Amino acid sequence: MRVVGITGGIATGKSTVAAMFKECGAALIDADALSRAAVEPCQPAYHAVVAQFGTGILRDDGTLDRRALGALVFRDAEARRRLEAIIHPYVVQAIQRQLAEWRASPSPPPLVVVEIPLLYEAGLEEMVDTVVVVSSEQATQLQRLITRTGLAPEEAMLRIAAQMPLSEKEARAAHVISTDKPLQAVREEVRRLYEDLLAGEGSELDGPTS
Q1: CA 40, 45, 51: angle at the middle one, nearest 5?
Q2: Hey, how many other C-beta atoms are within 10 angstroms of the C-beta on 74?
Q3: Could you tell me if 12 and 165 are in contact, meaning their C-beta atoms sit under 8 angstroms apart?
Q4: Phi and psi for 209 in degrees, rounded to 5?
Q5: 66: Cβ–Cβ under 8 A, 6 or more apart, which residues?
Q6: What is the 3-state secondary structure (H, E, C) of the chain?
C-alpha cells in the first residue's frame, strides 16, 4: 500500500485533484473533513478550542462559527498556532488509525491519497511515501477563494499569506500539478501520475516533476 500526500495552498484545487485520484481508484482520506469532525460539539477538540478562544466563536446553536474563528486566527499567527496545536493531534491520530486499518486488511488499497493542506507546516511528510503539491497562480487562487467564501479581497489575501509560500512547497515535493490548465488536462495529468505511482515510479527521491 502506497500513501500519497496531497497538499498545496488554499484554493489551489487540492480537493479537486484528490477527487480525481479517487476516480482513478485511489482510497482517500480528507484531513479537512477530519478536522471539522474533531471540533463538532461534544468532541474533545471542540471543548479545547472554546476554552482557548471563548464563546464568541460559537453560533447560537453551539456549533463553531468557522468564519469568526478564521477571522481571528488568520490575523494572529500565535492564535493560529494555538488552534493548530489543539486540532492537529486528533487529525493525525485519525489518519494513522485509518491507515493502520487498511494495512491490516487482507486486501488493502494499493494507493491511498491523504489530502493534508498543512502537511509541510505540520511536519507530516514522514506519514506519506511521496508528496504531490497542487499549485496555481496567486491571482487564480485569490479569485477562487473570494468566489468560494465571499471574503473581501484583503481577508482572502491574509489567508493566502498565512500559509507557507507555494514556491517552497513546490521545491520540496516530488510532484507538482498546476490547476491553471483546463480541467480535462488536469484530469489526464492525474491519471498518468496515478498509473506511475501504482507502478512504483515517482519516488519522493526523484525530485519535483510537473
Answers
A1: 105
A2: 21
A3: no
A4: -135, 155
A5: none
A6: CEEEEEEECCCCCHHHHHHHHHHHCCEEEEHHHHHHHHCCCCCHHHHHHHHHHCHHHECCCCCECHHHHHHHHCCCHHHHHHHHHHHHHHHHHHHHHHHHHHHHCCCCCCEEEEECCCCCCCCCHHHCCEEEEEECCHHHHHHHHHHHHCCCHHHHHHHHHCCCCHHHHHHHCCEEEECCCCHHHHHHHHHHHHHHHHCCCCCHHHCCCC
* CATH class belonging to 2-206: alpha beta
- How far apart (Å, rounded) are the C-alpha atoms in residues 53 and 70? 11
> Are the C-beta atoms of residues 46 and 9 closer than 8 Å to each other?
no
- How many Cβ atoms are within 10 Å of 72's Cβ, its own excluded? 16
pLDDT for the residue 75: 87
> Cell 491520530 sits at which residue?
93
Whether the predicted pLDDT of 206 surpasses 70? no
What is the pLDDT of the chain when averaged over all its residues?
A: 93
